[in-house]
Every structure is written in C-alpha cells, then in structure tokens.
Amino acid sequence: MPADDWTEKYRPQTLKEIVGNPTSAETMHQWALSWEKGTPKFRALVLIGTPGIGKTSSAEALAREMGWGLVEMNASDQRTGGAIQDIATRASNFNTFDADGSYMSASNGGRKLIILDEADSLYGNSDRGAMPVIVDLIRNTRQPVILICNDFYELSRRSSAIKSETMQITFRKPQAASIAKVLMKICAKERVIIAPEAIQTIAENAGGDLRAAVRDLQSIALGRREVTAEMAEHISQRESRSDMFEFIHMLLKKRNAPAAKQLLRECDVDPGTVSVWIDENLPKNCASRQDLCDAYNALSRADVYLGRVGKRMYYGLWSYANDMMVYGITDGLRTPTMSFERVSFPTYLSKMSRSRTTRALRKSVAMKLGMLIHTSANTILSESMDFFRAMAVDDADFRVILVKDAMLEPDELGFLMGCKTDDKRIKAAMLAAHPPEPKEPKTRTTRAKKTQAAPAEPKAPVKKEVPAAVVEAPIVQEPAPAPPASDSPPPADPPAAPKSRQKSLFDF
Hints:
Elements: H1 6-9, H2 22-34, E1 44-48, H3 55-66, E2 69-73, H4 81-93, E3 96-97, E4 103-104, E5 112-116, H5 130-140, E6 145-149, H6 152-156, H7 161-164, E7 167-170, H8 176-190, E8 193-194, H9 196-205, H10 210-221, E9 226-227, H11 229-232, H12 244-254, H13 257-267, H14 271-281, H15 289-312, H16 318-332, H17 347-354, H18 356-373, H19 377-394, H20 396-404, H21 410-417, H22 424-433, H23 447-453, H24 468-472
Helix pairs in contact: 2-3, 4-5, 8-9, 9-10, 12-13, 13-16, 14-15, 14-16, 15-16, 18-19, 18-21, 19-20, 20-22
C-alpha cells in the first residue's frame, strides 16, 4: 500500500467532487464565469468555514476547471506588505505564463487565480503592513482573487472593505453520511476491505472535518487489507471549536446554560473578553427591566471575581466568573423574548482594533521624544506632546531636528503634526534631514587617453660625443640673489570665514 498522503492523493479535482457544499461550489463557478465578460462587480471572493471542509480544495479545483494559473500564499509564507505586493499584487496586474511556458494573455482568457490562504491569521511584525496591501489588491486587481479564512469576523474587523467589496461564500461542515461515501470510495481505490461500522465510526468522530476523517482512515488502514469495527473504536473523537457567536446565541436566545458552558470551553476565550461580548448583546435580548437588572447583577459579580484575579494573580477564580456569566445570567432571564436581532460584535473591541495602529504610533513617538529630552514616555504623553506638536507644525527647522535627532519616521512625524505622510512638509523635512548623496560624474575615457596614461617603457640612454673644450671648461653657478631686506613682518594668512553652527533642540 502506498504511503502517500491520502488527503493530497484524493484531493477533489473538480467542483463537482466537493462534498457537502454544492451551492457554494456553483456560486464560485458563476463568479469565475463572470470574469469572461470583463471585470465583475466583486473582484475577490472570501471563502468562510472551519478547517478541513474543502475551502482550499475548492479554490484549486476552480482554477483547474477554468484553465487558470495559480498563485498561492499561505500562513507558512512571509506575508508582509512588501511580500504580498511583490507576489500577489504584481501577479494581479500582469499577464501570466502557462505551466508549459506558453504565454497567456488576459484579454484572450488566460488568467491566474490568486489565493491568500488563512487570511485571518495576520499577527505581529511577521505580517506587518499586510492588510492595506490586501485591501488595495481586492480593489484594483485585474485577476481573480480568493481569500480563505476560518473566522470572517476576525478578518473583516481589520478593514470594512473586506465586508463591502468582496463576495462572501460560507462552507458548511459536511454530514457524516457524505463523509462516509468519500471514505468508501477511497477504500475501494486502495483495495481495502472495511466494515460499514468502522466507516460510520470514523465519519462521526471527524465532527465534519473531511480532511481529518481521511487521515484517520489512512492511519488505521495503512499496512492492512482489512479493517474491522473494533479497530475504528480506538480512534478518539475530534475536538470541535466554536466561536463567540454560537455561545451568545445559546446563552441569550436559547438560554440553555449547560450547552452554553460547553460552547464556552470550546471557544477558548478569556473571561474578560466574554464579559465584553455579553455586555454588548445583553440589552437586546431582555424583555423586561427586571431581567436586565438581574442579568447585569450577575455580570457585575463576575467582574468582581475578574478584578480579584488581576489583584491576587489567582486564576482559579476564573471558574467562578464563568459560572456567574453563564448560570447567573440565564437564571436572571425569566421573561421569554422573541428577539430577531443578530449577535453583534462588541463595539469596544472594534474601536480598539481600528485604533491599534494609532495607539502604536502614539506610543512610538512618545518613546523617541522621551529619549531625546531624557524623560519618560508617560511624561511626554501627559505634559509635552501638545508643545511638540505645536512646534513641529510652526517651525520647519524643528521638524528637521525631530527627524534627524529623534529619528522619527514619516508616519510618526505625520501623526505628530496631524497630517498624512505624503504631505509636502513631511517630504521636505525628510529630504533636509537625510539629503541624497551626490553622485560622482561619469567621465568617458577614450582609447587614446588610456594609451597616453599608460607608463612608457624606459629607453636605454644614448651616448653622444662631446667636444673636449666643452668638457674641460668648469661650470660656475652664480649664487641666487638674496631677497630684499624689509622691516615689515610677512603678511598673515587671511582670516577664515566663520562656520555656521547647526541648530539643536535647545536653541528653540
């Protein structure tokens, strides 16, 4: 039996082979056909769904069906703004070549599909500057683009363009019966005799993850010709992951405390974030003021436990906070309600996410200014930031000092002055602080000059016959005339011009 990875060996080759999501596959096909008529309204797709349900396989199958080239970037690649611009953005604006090297013109239908896998996993310095480039990509691309994510809300909260300027397609988890059919086909191709009970056990334990089911089947059937039901019983059930939307729906709409507590364990979110989610959605799901008062009373008790955790660093109190936020709130909601409002993402978290870049710039500017005048960043923020801002706006020389001595970057100086980085004052300050080095003039050297510059070989001296009278005559050298005596001292050197002193921060 071959030891190849069955998930790659039996990856779907066409959209018809996608399991459990025929509607999503057909929507992708219609979007791809719209590119043949010109640039569609939505130039980018966003495929949403849990891992292992066929999002990446569907995108690759679409490229094969349409005869498109493929440019793919995933989380293992460097996905900084520059890397995405070099690879994805350039690929989206130019024509391409086929796998055999033949030229493919976009005007004649030759296109390439750009896939950004795990687009919601952009964190830290390793992916810095990626989101602005992605937004520019989906707005200006001339080639089809597909973004693949597990959590669409994590992706869309970084930029509103992700939600308004893309087409979103949601992939659902396939049913156990659909997964069992795929496993039976694989066993038939691998010539493995497997019991129907074993197939059913593997399909149910996968929890809707088709990729996990195929790997479980390979792990148990590798090296065997027959698989029994007893062998499949040793495969553990896959842990499923839930999100906060499912938890809030179960807690406030269905008001099922045990099920909500189980979803809270699967979400793996700290209790502080859970309290923010509940605070955002609780008023929309209370039918009476008394219910709202009792629910917030339980939420405030949970906040007391969270405060003690921060003060005593005893995280065992988290369980008490979770119980108050689940059982305490459901106990306070006694009046039935028929609320049809959707679960909302917390406004506080959205504002903090949108201001993350601004807060980082503010902190960076304060640290650099504090190092310049030997004080703390907190002192700059609380006392001196407004003075620095006023001087930077009014004085061009002061802006040069900030760039040269405080080493402010264009975006930091723009933040301090309250303008964009392409402002002419910012450009002038950067140019004055870091002037370009003068280039040496290039001179042409002709072959004749090179020949003259080459040192000539020394020639042997030629002896000439000299008359005897000339040889015997003595050579008398007359002494050089002495300089005229003068009582005046020698003239002194002219005084040097005074050097201009560079202004510093303390001259202002």
